[in-house]
Specification:
By secondary structure, the chain is α+β, with helices and mostly antiparallel strands.
């Protein structure tokens, strides 16, 4: 689906190794300058997406793959975040050069040692339940539309609690997103 979207007319792709594909009247703004390090956090396309009150479409996707939750990991007050360092090839002035890159761990290991298996899916499923979002169908695929701000407000305190106490995830489905 992403590759299909990338090849659609007027789609824009940023030049950063943390790739984003965007389309629409805010495309240039969304993929404007992106920090080299910590590219999913402040001043990133995800940060600007949130500022535009963006909506997340899940279309037949695994709920553990919601990229926006990496933004939440970046901005949440989580101690002892795991950091990864990479040496990556990039094009600069027509030549391939190698640059060092630093990022919070966005791999399956997660940004914190207390993250349980499939933590993002647990967060998304709990959010859908708590907000009464039953989604819909497109063909055989389920779809859900989420407000980025709502997901941030729900996930951030949860991530902070699980970082302090891994058992906090047990209360995931009991949380009210609108206290």
């Amino acid at each position: 689906m992403v590759e299909f979207f990338r090849t659609c007319p007027d789609s824009r792709v940023n030049r950063h190794v943390a790739r984003f594909v965007v389309w629409g009247k805010q495309a240039d703004y969304l993929i404007s300058e992106q920090p080299w390090n910590y590219a999913f956090g402040l001043h990133s396309p995800l940060d600007r997406f949130l500022g535009l009150d963006g909506m997340i479409l899940l279309l037949g996707s695994d709920h553990d793959t919601v990229t926006f939750l990496h933004y939440v990991e970046h901005v949440a007050e989580i101690p002892d975040k795991r950091i990864r360092r990479f040496h990556v090839p990039v094009q600069e002035d027509g030549s391939r050069v190698w640059r060092d890159l630093e990022e919070f761990d966005t791999s399956g290991d997660g940004v914190h040692a207390n993250w349980p298996d499939r933590f993002f899916a647990k967060i998304v499923d709990a959010y859908l339940t708590a907000t009464g979002n039953q989604g819909g169908r497109v063909g055989n695929a389920m779809f859900y539309i989420l407000r980025a701000r709502g997901l941030l407000d729900f996930a951030s305190p949860l991530m902070e609690a699980v970082a302090k106490n891994p058992r906090a995830v047990d209360y995931l489905c009991k949380r009210d997103p609108h206290p």
